[in-house]
Amino acid sequence: MLKKVARWIDNRLGTSAFTQDALNKVFPDHWSFMVGEIALYAFVVLIVTGIFLSFFFDASTSQSVYDGSYAPLVGVEVSDAYKSTLEISLDVRAGLVMRQTHHWAALVFVAAIVVHLCRIFFTGAFRSPRELNWIIGITLLILAIFNGFTGYSLPDDLLSGTGLRIAYSIALSVPLLGTWMGFLIFGGEFPADQIISRLLVTHIMIVPALIIGLLTAHLALLWRQKHTQFPEPGRTEHNVVGSKLWPTYAAKSLGLFFGVFAILVLMGGLFQINPIWLYGPFEPQQVSSPAQPDWYLGWVDGALRLFPAVELRAFGFEIPNPFYPGVLLPGVTFLALYAWPFLEQAFTHDREPHNLLDRPRDRPMRTALGATTLAFYTVMFIASSSDLIAKWFTVSVLDLVRVFQVLVILIPPAVGWATYRLMKALAGSGAPRLTEMPLSALTHPNGRGNGAFPHQERGRDAHAGGATAGDDGDGRSAARTGGDGALPAQRIDDRE
Amino acid sequence: MSHPSHPGRGPERREGPGIAVAFGVSALASLGLTVLYGFGGQPQIEGILLFIALGGLGAGLILWGKQLMPNAPFVEERKLNLGRPEARAEVVASLEEAGPDAGRRSFLAKMLGGALGALGVAALFPIRSLGTAPGRALFRTPWAGGGRVVTIDGEPVAAGDFEVGQVLTIVPEGNLEAGDSQVILIRLEPGEYEPPPGREDWSPEGFVAFSKVCTHAGCPVGLYQAGSQELFCPCHQSVFAVLQAAAPTAGPATRPLPQLPLRIDEDGFVAAQGDFVEPVGPGFWNRPSA
Ligand code: FES
């Protein structure tokens, strides 16, 4: 049977050689390479559950009186969008599991992308020749966050309506274009009627199409350029060591897919998320409290809370307060992310192609910078729950905000400094991993080769060769030699 | 494709019964799902059964991959040829085969660019159809008519029935749903509120009214603390002091909540004198200064 199908296809497409190559393609086995796959599989779950939801959802804001099975809302005027979401949740069989799985999958999707991004960043996988795929990846992150927000806003409930209102205000805050932007996006002054149907088209067609296109390109580039790998004996700039796609890697990866799907449906079944029947329908005069966005926008919400009450005004024009944390900060954030590979190249003058990864300790400066950045966004993320934290600890939320305003300035550099010291110490100690580093290494960060961990420890079952990563820290790339080749990767000459 | 120098495929791997059990359990859970669905469904059990059905498949496949499939590290050479100058030169030459002489070609290319550019500009115009023009919309609210104030259910507010210390969200009569017209009505002790100059007759009988749209990012300023007479925005914790004409005292808001001029009409109901004198809600670039 298999033979017949193979013959039929090969006679028409002549794909046997390619297929053979594909089946033999080697994928590295390091666990951290799974994170991107988790993002991919969460996206598949999003599509599967999203298609189900789209059959029931009605993106209309026309109002009617609710008469469904949720007693506390019977007799209340609600929009069709809200009503149909209630129906999916409470009346459609398996609807609630689908809806909650969809929501959890969205949270996991963005989370996996962020962790994947961290892996790429801290191991230097973004370096030449992979800058293009870094750019595609950052774009995917932006699209994922954006689509999370559009989906979150669809049910026309009180919580998401408040979020939309803030989004509208942020649009208004853009100099010169803001008022037009707000009115054109929303269809008029807030709350305009078209917004929910526009969000739906954006959420289920435009952005998913873009994501699918870019995801395909992301994987195609990965396929073409092959995986990076951690330096170990036997691994060079010129090979890839790991499992073959067929059968081992395919089985494991498919297993991972089912595992991700399994965890997401379990969360969807057991953990309540976004219970819109408790929030009630959107009314412009009402607000839900506490009001938090989904986690991936927490940093923006936190920034809106922490940014001091200032705004620029000159010549009769103003740049309103939400512009700085709501437009400028995200703009700078993503621009810096896009630019990072090129910034680092400009800084280190290292334009060589790299297929062997850095370990974070190899680049203490980069690692410290990354940790500083993560700390900055984490503090803002935590600050977006300032009202909840204040409630738990029964302190004044205003005092707490002041504390966060100080922390957001103090903590990132402290984390960066500590990370730098730690990476230096780790590199100096030669310990194979952080948990095996003797504490004394911290006090003598430069006491490298103190005998505890000779370098070749890293490849315990070492065969040939053995010298692996040099740890020159912040200078040019260390020449890495694996077992069977001291050649650097092939040069790229970008200057004619 | 070559095997690495050491042949070690690790210790002999044994196949436990795990794989078959995982697939079997998965099948049972799927069966259970169909039964459960037939009985009307139950979200938590659905979640658990789906978890077992999918998780069983996942576990089985991963075990299969780990226990039965070739797991030695395989080595693949990177054969990718980056940046080959000869090939690139050919591509560039092919691309340049677009016409005979360079001068004429560049002229035509410019014309083509111009045509495409014009089409692009023309294609931008339909964007204008997406919404109404901002015009003066942000500068006025449905209070412009100056009618009675009503509750969000449309009930008018009789001044005599409204006690000192009471708070109410009000909207203009005949327009309950607008996004910019919600107002907080508070009755203070007569004389407690010292109006800023120019607003002396805006607060008859101790009634004061402030826009409920936060001047920070537009959330409804939903919480009132009677003790300190402060309005509190739950979105980013801006605080507005009612007795100081709703000036912001904490949080990111930079401007007071605009005050709505009130009157008591002939029948004793609370009414507006007219619109706010300044735009309500969050700032925008051409908002006039107060
Ligand atoms: S919207 Fe009120 S504080 Fe931000």
Tell me briefly what this model is.
The complex is a heterodimer of chains A (496) and B (290). Chain A has 496 residues and is mostly helical.
Secondary-structure element order of chain B, as H and E?
HHEHHEEEEEEEEEE
Radius of gyration of chain B: 36 Å
Oligomeric state, counting identical vs distinct chains: heterodimer
Strand content of chain A: under 5%
* Fraction of helical residues of chain B: 25-40%
Count of runs of 4 or more consecutive helical residues of chain B: 4
Task: Give the domain tally of chain B.
Answer: 2
* Average pLDDT level of chain A: 89
Structural class label of chain A: mainly alpha
Beginning-to-end CA distance, first to last residue of chain A: 54 Å
- Within CATH, the superfamily of one domain in chain A carries the name Cytochrome Bc1 Complex, Chain C
Main sheet: strand order of chain A = 1-4
* CATH top level assignment of the largest domain in chain B: Mainly Beta
CATH topology of the largest domain in chain B: Rieske Iron-sulfur Protein
Q: Which second-level CATH architecture of one domain in chain A applies?
A: Up-down Bundle
Helical amount of chain A: 55-70%
Q: What is the CA–CA distance across the termini of chain B? A: 75 Å
CATH topology of one domain in chain A: Cytochrome Bc1 Complex, Chain C
Q: What is the number of strand segments of chain A?
A: 6
Name of the CATH class of one domain in chain A: Mainly Alpha
How are the strands of the largest sheet of chain B arranged?
Answer: 2-3-4-5
